[in-house]
Design brief:
Layout (H helix, E strand, L loop, with lengths): L1 H6 L2 H12 L2 E4 L2 E4 L7 H13 L3 E8 L7 E8 L7 H11 L1 H4 L4 E7 L4
Parallel strand pairs: 4-5
Antiparallel strand pairs: 1-2, 3-4
Family: Belongs to the BolA/IbaG family.
Pfam family, one: BolA
Function: Acts as a mitochondrial iron-sulfur (Fe-S) cluster assembly factor that facilitates (Fe-S) cluster insertion into a subset of mitochondrial proteins. Probably acts together with NFU1.
């Protein structure tokens, strides 16, 4: 990888970093992407907790953005339970649901919304 980095221009190296952080890898000049249908154990655990806490969630996506080690997650959840609540109140509900799991994390990104229908 070091030899590869030395031969790449600054722009190409930046693009490689972006590809790598998005689970896309450049191998021998070909772009390959990790199958995103497989969940890590941590992602599955968080999904199960949130499905139980927000049974009417219209949309739920949990992504381990720490590279698979479980230190940081990004959560997108759309639920009617958030209707009439400010964003901070919505996020507090998610934090309360994940109280135990959060203790072992470095960070958590939360995106909440109310279904449009």
């Amino acid at each position: 990888m070091l030899a590869l980095k030395r031969s790449l221009s600054g722009t190409m190296l930046s693009a490689l970093r972006v590809f790598h952080t998005n689970q896309v890898f450049v191998v021998s000049g070909h772009v390959q992407q990790r199958c995103v249908s497989t969940q890590t154990d941590g992602e599955a655990r968080i999904v199960n907790i949130l499905k139980e806490k927000f049974p009417s969630a219209a949309s739920l996506k949990v992504v381990d953005i720490s590279g698979g080690c479980g230190a940081m997650y990004e959560i997108h959840i759309e639920s009617s339970e958030f209707k009439g609540k400010r964003t901070i109140q919505q996020h507090k509900l998610v934090n309360e649901a994940l109280k135990e799991e959060i203790q072992g994390m470095h960070g958590l990104r939360i995106f909440t919304d109310v279904p449009k229908h």
